[in-house]
Design a protein that fits this description.
The chain is of the alpha+beta class. It contains three helices and six strands; from the N terminus they run H-E-E-E-E-H-E-E-H. The protein has one domain: 2-Layer Sandwich (Yope Regulator, Chain: A). The protein has a six-stranded antiparallel beta sheet.
Length: 142
Amino acid sequence: MTQEAAATARLLTAAKEALENYHDVHVDDDGALTFRHADVPCAVQAMQLADGLTVLSLTCVVAWDLPPTDELAQSVAERAGQGLFGTLGVVRTERGMDVTLRYAFPAEGMAAAPLGTLLMLVVATASQLRTELLAEPEGTTN
């Protein structure tokens, strides 16, 4: 196993242990971790960006197949400017708009408790955003 592979494996193991305090966590064939927080599917991956810089990347699918309105896109853009943990993204598809929340951070050496807290802050934000977006008149149930 290469040094890079060992570093990412260690980081994913630490993330899995931290998340298992809150969720059932599945390990995918490619090593990514997946779980659901309420109705929000999430995935965690690890990657080495540079020698000595290994990061975790958390992606939450906040909502999908929402009506592709300018009002909804503007609402998401306004929320993105509110200093959230993570970066909101909107993707327009054939079935509507999908909203994601992504957060990447260097996590090597973090203890399980602070790592779990940080991951849950992002996931809780994604769940809150989902609730707010689906409550808006433009939103639909997913």
